[in-house]
């Protein structure tokens, strides 16, 4: 039945020091810009949600005003870069023990300066209990929201917006978590919420869900009955007891009923015939551990069985489990998974959620923010500001961590535009962007973590150098180093902390950390310089291409695409050379590939695009929405295109006639997730009937999408700029990937 | 799970055992053990078959098409027919995880001649079982369940229902040895997990060969048979009207004239749930380990009680709402969003999360809550199975229901309420003995 937390228990955390000093900036981040609040108070944990506006610097590019001036002057940058303040929206979720609730409310009250909010949405069993306290402290009116409605709203939200949100739990495998790629259609599903009782809800659409059943045997039964049997008061301690017990001392097993014959009968002797069946005797003592274990099995099996019966009745195979009974406890995830597998014979999958604990708070927040239509946006998990699964604010120093107790954070950034699937994906549900799963592949994980650690110095240096006029750049860069270093250490210990670990997630985490400390685009000046050089080379490159015969030209164009790709500051092999030799550049890259080349976008991509245009092909050129390493951004691509159009009539007329369209991908990563692309791009792809997809670069065509299956022709090309990866793929450093695929009939 | 049958391999085994039953009579006479048998006793037994019984059996065989003849029978024919009928005593045994259920057929049509020839050990068993209502400190004969004037295999007699705890099985086997059971060359048809567990002990200690039978086959056979013979003129099957209203609640007979399809919920130590489509067509749907053993086991731990009766007696005086957290405890009333009534239990033992409330409950309250928890859960699983199998009559059997009106009424009410009147909970007077009856029927080869 409904989650009601365990209000009234009041037993959890009693012994903790309530006058705790919070490390406020680390936890209630950006509170001075907080706008709207929601709170979910469970039996032992409080989850606070708020929306804030984050002001951060962005590097904007702008064309110089060329009217009446000599635009051909050398050594002048092709465009100007201005650092501007941009305001974006962020959702903050903080989870802490109820013990801290008063201290936290005091802290919020003291720091709440800008809010015009009058109400706070509240949900959870404890919302009633703490209503007066909240109203008194925050001077906000408490608006109570229905628990299950909030839960389901929250569940829909994380399933839609957080990649790798759901996972299956596999005991005995390393790691135990196997994350699911986001299904494009999340409905219908079954949500089994195991609070003090169990509620089973069938969710059919965003707004339609139905309570299909429940059970009174839930977390409260484990806790209450467990406390009676073992005299152990705390839920976590009961779980700990259970994890050490032998249930076969208390339960009547099949082998107890059948003797040794179960083997010849093909029965599993370890199946439980009767829970607590052996305790029906007056003359035997049972250990606390054994009874707790037996109780855990009894309850988990029962819930699993009911969930399977309901899943079968409604023909559903995706069942998500949540509630305080599950919340991050490997013991209960294991027993529930076992039960589901047993009763469904593998037909139903028990799924758990990384942010399960936040569902109520997220839902309550969304309820209160309905007028802002948060559901019409896409949101992205901010790796810099979020704690990982099973890790309590790992980025805090050990001393802070000890003091902050169990504070757990989730931050989500509102993306400028909604993200959707690339319509050309062959089978969206089975699309996995990443080529190597580093959670799985321990060898690759070790290599890449070390690789990112070693590259950190260079990134810090680059960040400082990108802001020569800033007085605190060095200090901020140092903070960035510390934050990213700590993330890497967390991921060494818990590779599953943020879902499936991939090269992409490592790169994205670095970008998030850089943004966090106001290094929005450390490469903007480098790109500006390189683009300037390349633009000047462009006419010459085009001229020499035009002198070639058709076949030679195609080869030259492809080589140009690949050569430009070598200029990637992200790849360590490349950045080492570039950092040590400022004159390394165009000629060096040419030598490596022994032929004509140009710098990625201008000398590689544009000539290739121009060739396509010449043969009558329409081209959609999609670039990153936001900066990532030295990749060209959509903004830069617009200026570059404008400049090229000024030099080249082919590009000029194509732009004018909309045969060449420049759009943004929606991504700010060196990699590309084709299931999260800008809605405008997807619409255009559909509208124009795109029938060839060219994906270029190591991040987008090798680290991701190498195995991506599309329903049209595709070309994936990259230069392998990493010796280890080259070796793994069976080649050498600077080998070329050129993968042309035609979809199977 | 549950103490019921657990898988297909068992079924195979059960069938194989059943086959061996049909040759059981011969085996007793001519098998390896038969060789040690004295010719005198063989004759003595055969001579004891009365003419009147044979005629009934003859009629029965008639239906099967293998024999047709007048009621007058020659001694010779009786002799040949006798081979199809096992020697006395006739037992059916069901050895469960907690309880052993024994049914014993007491022939009441013994002629003077037969009585004279009856061997001493057989007579002593008959007298011992029928003249006592308790055996040792734990064996009990459920006198109120005795079925009178039953005709089985052409013999008239009474069917007795006896139970004792499974942990006294060694004493039972020892008694069999002491009473020189093996000399009777009777076949012990046994079902339940204990038929396997104690098979070796029966053989080595009691010199008795068990004929092991599939417990679900036996269960279904037993139920159908017992329902067909009724309960000494009354109906075997019944249901409750107004189960939630202690004033108006009535136990009423139910005519199971259209038994199929039927969901059969057998609540022993564990629970087995079967969907029965015809006499020979059934499947085990599921089972749960939360059964009678769980109720009693938890009660022992929580209250220190020592017997099932004591546990139930405590439960009858307790108040589970002090222990359980109800919907109204959370929502102040009904939870309208989900259509949940305020009286529904939201969390079994949910109030026990609080120290103050733990200190405020009595043992009786805890016993009651345990009973309500286990019963509601069984009702809930049964209801889901009935929905999945599209069956609307549910028969609850098993010894958990013995003297357990609270559980039966709760099952009746819960099934009716949550199914909005679609499902009917049915019960049967001989709640826990069907497996044993089925075993006896196998012995007698009654289809």
UniProtKB/TrEMBL annotation, chain A:
<keyword id="KW-0547">Nucleotide-binding</keyword>
<keyword id="KW-0597">Phosphoprotein</keyword>
<keyword id="KW-0944">Nitration</keyword>
<keyword id="KW-0067">ATP-binding</keyword>
<dbReference type="InterPro" id="IPR036075">
    <property type="entry name" value="ARMT-1-like_metal-bd_sf"/>
</dbReference>
<comment type="function">
    <text>Phosphatase which shows a preference for 4'-phosphopantetheine and its oxidatively damaged forms (sulfonate or S-sulfonate), providing strong indirect evidence that the phosphatase activity pre-empts damage in the coenzyme A (CoA) pathway. Hydrolyzing excess 4'-phosphopantetheine could constitute a directed overflow mechanism to prevent its oxidation to the S-sulfonate, sulfonate, or other forms. Hydrolyzing 4'-phosphopantetheine sulfonate or S-sulfonate would forestall their conversion to inactive forms of CoA and acyl carrier protein.</text>
</comment>
<comment type="similarity">
    <text>In the N-terminal section; belongs to the type II pantothenate kinase family.</text>
</comment>
<dbReference type="InterPro" id="IPR035073">
    <property type="entry name" value="At2g17340_3_helix_bundle"/>
</dbReference>
<dbReference type="GO" id="GO:0015937">
    <property type="term" value="P:coenzyme A biosynthetic process"/>
</dbReference>
<keyword id="KW-0479">Metal-binding</keyword>
<dbReference type="GO" id="GO:0004594">
    <property type="term" value="F:pantothenate kinase activity"/>
</dbReference>
<dbReference type="GO" id="GO:0046872">
    <property type="term" value="F:metal ion binding"/>
</dbReference>
<dbReference type="InterPro" id="IPR002791">
    <property type="entry name" value="ARMT1-like_metal-bd"/>
</dbReference>
<keyword id="KW-0378">Hydrolase</keyword>
<dbReference type="GO" id="GO:0005524">
    <property type="term" value="F:ATP binding"/>
</dbReference>
<comment type="similarity">
    <text>Belongs to the type II pantothenate kinase family.</text>
</comment>
<dbReference type="GO" id="GO:0016787">
    <property type="term" value="F:hydrolase activity"/>
</dbReference>
<dbReference type="InterPro" id="IPR015844">
    <property type="entry name" value="PanK_long"/>
</dbReference>
<keyword id="KW-0464">Manganese</keyword>
<dbReference type="InterPro" id="IPR043129">
    <property type="entry name" value="ATPase_NBD"/>
</dbReference>
<keyword id="KW-0533">Nickel</keyword>
<dbReference type="GO" id="GO:0005737">
    <property type="term" value="C:cytoplasm"/>
</dbReference>
Automatic annotation (TrEMBL), chain B:
<dbReference type="GO" id="GO:0009060">
    <property type="term" value="P:aerobic respiration"/>
</dbReference>
<dbReference type="GO" id="GO:0007286">
    <property type="term" value="P:spermatid development"/>
</dbReference>
<dbReference type="GO" id="GO:0004594">
    <property type="term" value="F:pantothenate kinase activity"/>
</dbReference>
<keyword id="KW-0547">Nucleotide-binding</keyword>
<comment type="similarity">
    <text>Belongs to the type II pantothenate kinase family.</text>
</comment>
<protein>
    <recommendedName>
        <fullName>pantothenate kinase</fullName>
        <ecNumber>2.7.1.33</ecNumber>
    </recommendedName>
</protein>
<keyword id="KW-0963">Cytoplasm</keyword>
<dbReference type="InterPro" id="IPR004567">
    <property type="entry name" value="Type_II_PanK"/>
</dbReference>
<dbReference type="GO" id="GO:0005634">
    <property type="term" value="C:nucleus"/>
</dbReference>
<dbReference type="GO" id="GO:0007005">
    <property type="term" value="P:mitochondrion organization"/>
</dbReference>
<feature type="compositionally biased region" description="Low complexity">
    <location>
        <begin position="45"/>
        <end position="55"/>
    </location>
</feature>
<dbReference type="GO" id="GO:0005758">
    <property type="term" value="C:mitochondrial intermembrane space"/>
</dbReference>
<dbReference type="GO" id="GO:0051881">
    <property type="term" value="P:regulation of mitochondrial membrane potential"/>
</dbReference>
<dbReference type="Pfam" id="PF03630">
    <property type="entry name" value="Fumble"/>
</dbReference>
<dbReference type="GO" id="GO:0090207">
    <property type="term" value="P:regulation of triglyceride metabolic process"/>
</dbReference>
<dbReference type="InterPro" id="IPR043129">
    <property type="entry name" value="ATPase_NBD"/>
</dbReference>
<dbReference type="GO" id="GO:0015937">
    <property type="term" value="P:coenzyme A biosynthetic process"/>
</dbReference>
<comment type="subunit">
    <text>Homodimer.</text>
</comment>
<feature type="region of interest" description="Disordered">
    <location>
        <begin position="1"/>
        <end position="55"/>
    </location>
</feature>
<keyword id="KW-0173">Coenzyme A biosynthesis</keyword>
<comment type="pathway">
    <text>Cofactor biosynthesis; coenzyme A biosynthesis; CoA from (R)-pantothenate: step 1/5.</text>
</comment>
<dbReference type="GO" id="GO:0019217">
    <property type="term" value="P:regulation of fatty acid metabolic process"/>
</dbReference>
């Amino acid at each position: 039945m409904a989650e009601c937390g365990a209000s009234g228990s009041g037993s959890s955390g009693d012994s903790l020091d309530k006058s705790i000093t919070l490390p406020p900036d680390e936890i209630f981040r950006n509170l001075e810009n907080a706008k709207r609040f929601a709170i979910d108070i469970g039996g032992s944990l409080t989850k606070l949600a708020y929306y804030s506006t984050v002001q951060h610097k962005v590097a904007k590019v702008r064309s110089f005003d060329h009217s009446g001036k000599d635009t051909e002057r050398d050594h002048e940058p092709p465009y100007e870069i201005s650092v501007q303040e941009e305001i974006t929206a962020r959702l903050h979720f903080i989870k802490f023990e109820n013990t801290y609730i008063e201290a936290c409310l005091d802290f919020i009250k003291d720091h709440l300066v800008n809010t015009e909010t009058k109400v706070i949405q509240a949900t959870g069993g404890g919302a009633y209990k703490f209503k007066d306290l909240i109203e008194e402290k925050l001077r906000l009116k408490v608006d109570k929201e229905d628990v299950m409605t909030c839960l389901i709203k929250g569940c829909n939200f994380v399933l839609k917006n957080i990649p790798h949100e759901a996972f299956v739990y596999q005991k005995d495998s390393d790691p135990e978590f196997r994350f699911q790629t986001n299904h494009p259609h999340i409905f219908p599903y079954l949500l089994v919420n195991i609070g003090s009782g169990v509620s089973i809800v069938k969710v059919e659409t965003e707004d339609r869900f139905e309570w299909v059943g429940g059970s009174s045997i839930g977390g409260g039964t484990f806790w209450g009955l467990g406390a009676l049997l073992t005299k152990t008061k705390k839920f976590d301690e009961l779980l700990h007891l259970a994890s050490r017990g032998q249930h076969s001392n208390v339960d009547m097993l099949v082998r107890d009923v059948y003797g040794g014959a179960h083997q010849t009968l093909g029965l599993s002797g370890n199946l439980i015939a009767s829970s607590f069946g052996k305790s029906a005797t007056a003359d035997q003592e049972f250990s606390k551990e054994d009874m707790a274990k037996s109780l855990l099995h009894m309850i988990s099996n029962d819930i699993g069985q009911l969930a399977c019966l309901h899943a079968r009745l409604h023909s559903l195979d995706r069942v998500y489990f949540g509630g305080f009974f599950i919340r991050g406890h490997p013991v209960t995830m294991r027993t529930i998974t076992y039960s589901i597998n047993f009763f469904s014979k593998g037909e139903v999958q028990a799924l758990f959620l990384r942010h399960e604990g936040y569902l109520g708070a997220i839902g309550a927040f969304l309820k209160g923010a309905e007028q802002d239509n948060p559901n019409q946006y896409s949101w992205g998990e901010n790796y810099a500001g979020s704690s990982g699964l099973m890790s309590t604010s790992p980025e805090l120093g050990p001393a802070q961590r000890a003091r902050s107790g169990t504070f757990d954070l989730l931050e989500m950034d509102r993306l400028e535009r909604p993200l959707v699937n690339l319509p050309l994906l062959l089978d969206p549900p089975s699309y996995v962007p990443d080529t190597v799963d580093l959670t799985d592949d321990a060898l690759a994980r070790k290599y890449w973590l070390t690789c990112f650690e070693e590259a950190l110095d260079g990134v810090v240096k680059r960040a400082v150098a990108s802001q020569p006029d800033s007085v605190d750049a060095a200090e901020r860069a140092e903070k960035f180093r510390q934050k990213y270093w700590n993330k890497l250490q967390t991921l060494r210990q818990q590779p599953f902390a943020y879902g499936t670990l991939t090269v992409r997630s490592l790169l994205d985490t670095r970008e998030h950390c850089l943004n966090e400390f106001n290094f929005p685009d450390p490469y903007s000046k480098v790109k500006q310089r390189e683009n300037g050089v390349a633009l000047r080379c462009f006419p010459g490159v085009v001229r020499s291409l035009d002198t070639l015969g058709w076949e030679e030209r195609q080869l030259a164009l492809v080589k140009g695409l690949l050569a430009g790709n070598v200029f990637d500051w992200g790849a360590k092999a490349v950045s080492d050379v570039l950092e040590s030799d400022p004159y390394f550049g165009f000629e060096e890259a040419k030598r490596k590939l022994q032929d004509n080349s140009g710098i990625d976008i201008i000398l590689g991509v544009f000539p290739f695009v121009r060739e396509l245009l010449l043969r009558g092909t329409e081209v959609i050129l999609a670039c990153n929405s936001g900066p990532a390493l030295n990749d060209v951004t959509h903004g830069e691509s617009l200026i570059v295109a404008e400049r090229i159009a000024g030099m080249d009539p082919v590009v000029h007329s194509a732009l004018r006639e909309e045969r060449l369209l420049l759009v943004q991908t929606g991504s700010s990563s060196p990699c590309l997730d084709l299931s999260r692309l800008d809605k405008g791009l997807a619409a255009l792809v559909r509208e124009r009937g795109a029938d060839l997809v060219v994906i270029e670069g190591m991040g987008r065509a090798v680290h991701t999408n190498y195995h991506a299956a599309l329903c049209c022709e595709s070309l994936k090309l990259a230069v392998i700029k990493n010796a280890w990866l080259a070796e793994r793929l069976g080649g050498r450093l600077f080998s070329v990937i050129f993968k042309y695929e035609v979809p199977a009939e | 799970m549950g103490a019921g049958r657990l898988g297909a391999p068992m079924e195979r085994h059960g069938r194989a055992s059943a086959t061996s039953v049909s040759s059981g009579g011969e085996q007793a006479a001519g098998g390896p053990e038969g060789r040690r048998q004295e010719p005198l006793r063989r004759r003595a037994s055969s001579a004891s078959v009365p003419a009147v019984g044979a005629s009934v059996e003859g009629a029965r065989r008639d239906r099967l098409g293998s024999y047709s003849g007048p009621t007058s029978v020659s001694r010779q024919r009786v002799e040949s027919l006798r081979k199809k009928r096992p020697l006395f005593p006739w037992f059916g045994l069901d050895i469960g995880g907690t309880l052993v259920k024994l049914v014993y057929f007491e022939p009441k049509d013994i002629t003077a001649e037969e009585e004279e020839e009856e061997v001493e050990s057989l007579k002593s068993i008959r007298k011992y079982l029928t003249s006592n209502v308790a055996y040792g400190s734990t064996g009990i004969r459920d006198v109120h369940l005795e079925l009178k004037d039953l005709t089985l295999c052409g013999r008239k007699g009474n069917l007795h229902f006896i139970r004792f705890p499974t942990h006294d099985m060694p004493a039972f086997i020892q008694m069999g040895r002491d009473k020189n059971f093996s000399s009777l060359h009777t076949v012990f048809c046994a079902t339940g997990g204990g038929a396997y567990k104690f098979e070796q002990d029966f053989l080595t200690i009691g010199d008795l060969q068990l004929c092991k039978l599939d417990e679900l086959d036996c269960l279904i056979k037993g139920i159908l048979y017992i329902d067909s013979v009724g309960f000494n003129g009354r109906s075997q099957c019944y249901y409750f009207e107004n189960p939630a209203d202690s004033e108006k609640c009535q136990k009423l007979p139910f005519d199971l004239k259209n038994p199929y399809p039927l969901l059969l919920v057998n609540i022993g130590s564990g629970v087995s749930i079967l969907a029965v489509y015809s006499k020979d067509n059934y499947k085990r749907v599921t089972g749960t380990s939360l059964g009678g053993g769980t109720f009693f086991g938890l009660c022992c731990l929580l209250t220190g009680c020592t017997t099932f009766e004591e546990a139930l007696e405590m439960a009858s005086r307790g108040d589970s709402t002090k222990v359980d957290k109800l919907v109204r405890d959370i929502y102040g009333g009904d939870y309208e969003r989900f259509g949940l009534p305020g009286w529904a239990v939201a969390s079994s033992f949910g109030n026990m999360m609080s120290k103050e409330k733990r200190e405020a409950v009595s043992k009786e309250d805890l016993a009651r809550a345990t009973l309500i928890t286990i019963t509601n859960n069984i009702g809930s699983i049964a209801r889901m199975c009935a929905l999945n199998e599209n069956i609307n009559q549910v028969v609850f059997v098993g010894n958990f229901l013995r003297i357990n009106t609270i559980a039966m009424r709760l099952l009746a009410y819960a099934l009716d309420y949550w199914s909005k009147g679609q499902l009917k909970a049915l019960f049967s007077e001989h709640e826990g003995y069907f497996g044993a009856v089925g075993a006896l029927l196998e012995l007698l080869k009654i289809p």
